[in-house]
Amino acid sequence: MKKSGLLNPQLCAAVARLGHTQTFVIADAGLPIPHEIPVIDLALVLGTPRFQEVFDAILDEVVVEGATIAHEALGHEPEQWVRSRIEEVEIVSHEDLKKELPSVSFVVRTGETTPYSNVIVRCGVPF
């Protein structure tokens, strides 16, 4: 058994496959995800697990170059959560964020119910 870090085998494998500039999404419980995009569904019940818990756990293991959030999140908790961990944050409309979903590597679905708790994370490299 792993001693620390991510324990979910599907999530561990997906994170290990990420390369520079590839993207993935950490999503709230309601984000519509295209059928062809792999989903790692961590949602247990509404509100569990929280976006911030999942976001923090994944960012502890991933080199991040930047992120994209919805304009509708500005001034609310989701913006604060993302900006507290990522310096370069691009802002787009929620509709444009959803249009970018077909190009992501995978989506991690949380049980979060706070509106617009969705982020597209762009990977960096540790060197």
TrEMBL record:
<dbReference type="InterPro" id="IPR023064">
    <property type="entry name" value="D-ribose_pyranase"/>
</dbReference>
<protein>
    <recommendedName>
        <fullName>D-ribose pyranase</fullName>
        <ecNumber>5.4.99.62</ecNumber>
    </recommendedName>
</protein>
<comment type="subunit">
    <text>Homodecamer.</text>
</comment>
<comment type="function">
    <text>Catalyzes the interconversion of beta-pyran and beta-furan forms of D-ribose.</text>
</comment>
<dbReference type="GO" id="GO:0016872">
    <property type="term" value="F:intramolecular lyase activity"/>
</dbReference>
<feature type="binding site">
    <location>
        <position position="28"/>
    </location>
    <ligand>
        <name>substrate</name>
    </ligand>
</feature>
<feature type="binding site">
    <location>
        <begin position="116"/>
        <end position="118"/>
    </location>
    <ligand>
        <name>substrate</name>
    </ligand>
</feature>
<dbReference type="GO" id="GO:0005829">
    <property type="term" value="C:cytosol"/>
</dbReference>
<comment type="pathway">
    <text>Carbohydrate metabolism; D-ribose degradation; D-ribose 5-phosphate from beta-D-ribopyranose: step 1/2.</text>
</comment>
<dbReference type="GO" id="GO:0062193">
    <property type="term" value="F:D-ribose pyranase activity"/>
</dbReference>
<keyword id="KW-0963">Cytoplasm</keyword>
<dbReference type="GO" id="GO:0048029">
    <property type="term" value="F:monosaccharide binding"/>
</dbReference>
<dbReference type="Pfam" id="PF05025">
    <property type="entry name" value="RbsD_FucU"/>
</dbReference>
<comment type="similarity">
    <text>Belongs to the RbsD / FucU family. RbsD subfamily.</text>
</comment>
<dbReference type="InterPro" id="IPR023750">
    <property type="entry name" value="RbsD-like_sf"/>
</dbReference>
<keyword id="KW-0413">Isomerase</keyword>
<feature type="active site" description="Proton donor">
    <location>
        <position position="20"/>
    </location>
</feature>
<keyword id="KW-0119">Carbohydrate metabolism</keyword>
<feature type="binding site">
    <location>
        <position position="94"/>
    </location>
    <ligand>
        <name>substrate</name>
    </ligand>
</feature>
<dbReference type="GO" id="GO:0019303">
    <property type="term" value="P:D-ribose catabolic process"/>
</dbReference>
<dbReference type="InterPro" id="IPR007721">
    <property type="entry name" value="RbsD_FucU"/>
</dbReference>
